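Q: Give me the 3D complex with iron/sulfur cluster.
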Amino acid sequence: MLEIDERSDDFHYLGETAFEVAKLKTAGKAFLWGAVGIDYAACPMNCDFCSFGEKWGKIKEEKIYTREQIAGDVKEYVKNKVHYIVFRTTQFYSVKELVKLVEYIRREVPGNYELVLNTGEFDKAAADAFYNAGVRGIYHAIRLREGIDTRFNIDERRATLQAVRDSGLKLIHLVEPVGEEHTSGEIAERFLESVKYNVSISGIMARFPVEGTPLGNRRRISDEIIAKLIAVTRLSGGDTVQDICVHPASEKAVRAGANVVVVEKGAIPRDVEISDREWNNFNCADAITLFEKNGYVVDC
Ligand code: SF4
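A: Here is the predicted complex, encoded as structure tokens.
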């Protein structure tokens, strides 16, 4: 399916089928994913696509968000129907500090939202500590060309995925960051391995070119290609994958089976500037309109 030409009739059939399956599997429910990048800081891991890489010299002045600032963003998201509230950090943010932050946010901001962390590597004890503090999901991924475009040992990423699988936490793992050079085989391999770790939200994230990073001169893949990959992940996840997330959001991707879209602010690995407003001019109201226009009810 990954080899289907986006200009062919088969592409339309693939998308329509995935959209129908999505409506059945999700019972017509869509979700907003609201991320807050909580540390705008140089990261020594130097991934070839990330603006935070220390070596790329893009971060001139570091900014670590206070818990009060983060609580303000969480309240805004909750008011605007965000279900998954995600704290994203660079690789070496302290586990202890994250636990304290989550406890604080849970006290300060009531609601049915699910808290998700996207941070560095951790073991089962840390996973349990996150769960007990009120975290319900972890975003963690083996990225495409992990160990080639990144400085990671892929087995260290696997160990974290295993810790999540062994805990009460949900795993969220998109296939990412997809660029024009990635083959169908590489994309399929990343998706299928994430299914083995019981991924509950899968999907596709495109790579954004960040000027001055080693992959900054590569074009972003088109919305058509993203929609095709979304359709394939929607149709291939069996009963393991419940929800399909796309970043960046588009109507094409929603009509090909995505029922989760990302709104983000703060420190953004796709940008050299900090984003005090919703990044890329895509806010919660836009996300709600996108889903409602396509027959979904936004659940929060
Ligand atoms: S992607 Fe994560 S680990 Fe890699 S440089 Fe950026 S913050 Fe660090």
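A quick observation: Residues 9-288 form a domain with the TIM Barrel fold (CATH 3.20.20.70).
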